[in-house]
Amino acid sequence: QVQLVESGGGLVQAGGSLRLSCAASGSIVSINAMGWYRQAPGKPRELVATITSDGSTNYEDSVMGRFTNSMDNAKNTANLQMNSLKSEDTAVYYCHTNGRSRRLLRFDSWGQGTQVTVSS
Fold it and tell me: Rounded to whole angstroms, how far apart are CA atoms 47 and 68?
């Protein structure tokens, strides 16, 4: 089993920055990708950013140029640096990862969620 623990959420003024971290632990052989989703009240969960183990990244259009997703393969940790935050970035952010555990079994795990609130 693989578990994800998120940290770094909080309250910040518009234009400010936050950095979210997502640490994976458990029976990990390899991680294929780590990503970030967010969900605002009354809205569906949306994919914000992804990163694969080789460093390839993808971003949702609204965060491109403001958010940077990175990964430390040795620590099985992803970091989402969020700059120039806007009120519309307010949401609960969830980390997600998939890969291979022992005996080549697949895992697909979610973090507990961390609240990001951006005030105007």
Answer: 14
| Model confidence pLDDT, tens digit, residues 54-90 | 999 999 999 999 999 999 988 899 999 999 999 999 9
Pairing of strands 106-110, 77-82: unpaired
Among 62, 16, 43, 38, residue whose Cα is nearest residue 111: 38
Measure the CA–CA gap between 83 and 15, rounded to whole angstroms: 7
How many CA within 13 A on the CB side of residue 16?
Answer: 15
Do 69 and 52 meet the contact criterion of CB atoms below 8 Å apart? no
Cα torsion 5, 119, 12, 77 to 10°: value is 30
Q: pLDDT at position 73, please?
A: 84
Cβ atoms 4, 111 nearer than 8 A: yes
One-letter amino acid at 115 equals Q
